[in-house]
Amino acid sequence: MLRIGTVTLENHLVLAPMAGITNLPFRTLARRLGAGLVTTEMVSAMGLTMGHPRTRSYLRSWSDEKPLAVQLFGAGPRSMAEAARIAVEAGADIIDINMGCPVRKVAKTGAGAALLDHPERVAEIVTAVRLACTVPLTAKIRAGWAPERPTGLEIARVIADCEADAVTVHPRFATQRYTGRADWRLIGAGKGAARIPVMGNGDVFRAEDALRMRAETGCDGVMIGRSAVGNPWIFRQVLDLEAGREPGEPTLSERRAHILEHYRLLARAVGEQRAPYMMRGLLLAYTKGLPYSSRFRGRITSIKDFDTLTELMDDYFETLEGEGEP
Ligand SMILES: Cc1cc2nc3c(=O)[nH]c(=O)nc-3n(C[C@H](O)[C@H](O)[C@H](O)COP(=O)(O)O)c2cc1C
């Protein structure tokens, strides 16, 4: 169990925000499989305040994914505060501020990881959003912009001083993007510096890693990103391991049912037209490392609707079943 301000989570596992990935169906499935909290992809504060319909659509939510954290990015305290108000009105249970995005398009506006070089601006933004929003407030940071300027701890302290309820530490520099290893020592140090709940993030690839991260850093929560893509069962596996149970791999029939359910939810969220295209990348992730996956992958473009997906899946999973469980 983890408390973030007034919100009590079922457990300490959090689905990381991932642009282009953590949409409504993905989040719903992660919640069902054990994530205690799910996060939207980053949403432009400017886009929300200007009323862009596409930006606004990122706030859509279903009741069974709750509680939901909406992550906002922006550089202006006023627009961030206004965007937070809009997100809360749309149903956000927690507002998270992005201070880690290294992408040029975002950083050149002063948002995302560019904030790590400007503690005074961080204080203004967190204070403004804190005043504007009635729900708990968190922020997600990196170790700093570059190794020459390791400002992460200072920023964590500023975030806590401005009365945020928790902070997520992804201990890589923005210049590293996702390369090298996350230096978990900074997660533990962040906890000492901030004195608010700290979520550790970075390089939890297997269930064991989540337990190790908690033991090594003392973090209150564990946020998981890339490994949940293709293996959303990782949340359940962590919970199993913590309860002293063997972390179960999904059976073939469970995997098949999950993929079909993912398609159904996508079709519900974005319509039958777009769902087959959005499903392609997911199928690559879901079948990574499985036997005969290259033949299956070669046929992915033939998926036009639920029936063609089911047909392809039946064919592939029959072959797999002939092989026994992987
Ligand atoms: C495709 C992709 C998109 C991402 N989008 C976001 C984002 O919108 N906001 C954010 O704070 N972090 C974003 N991240 C970073 C992740 O939230 C996370 O910090 C990072 O992947 C490290 O965690 P992991 O090792 O568990 O993947 C993204 C990462 C990936 C791979």
Short summary:
The protein is of the alpha/beta class. The chain has helices spanning 24-32, 45-49, 53-57, 77-89, 104-107, 119-132, 152-161, 185-194, 207-217, 234-242, 252-270, 275-287, 293-298, 306-323, and strands at residues 2-4, 7-9, 13-15, 38-39, 43-44, 68-73, 94-99, 137-144, 166-173, 198-201, 221-224.
Give an overview of the whole structure.
The chain is an alpha/beta fold. It folds into two domains: 2-242, Aldolase class I (TIM Barrel, Alpha-Beta Barrel); 252-323, Orthogonal Bundle (Non-ribosomal Peptide Synthetase Peptidyl Carrier Protein, Chain A), CATH 1.10.1200.80. The protein is built from 14 helices and eleven strands. The strands form two sheets. Strands 3, 4, 5, 6, 7, 8, 9, 10 and 11 form a nine-stranded parallel β-sheet that branches. Strands 1-2 form a two-stranded antiparallel sheet. A hairpin with a 2-residue loop joins strand 1 (2-4) and strand 2. Helix 1 packs antiparallel against helix 11 (252-270), helix 4 runs parallel beside helix 6 and helix 7 (152-161) runs parallel beside helix 8. The structure holds flavin mononucleotide (FMN). Flavin mononucleotide (FMN) is lined by residues 16-21, 41-42, 71, 98, 100-101, 140, 170, 178, 201-204, 224-227. Residues 16-21, 41-42, 71, 98, 100-101, 140, 170, 178, 201-204, 224-227 line the site of flavin mononucleotide.
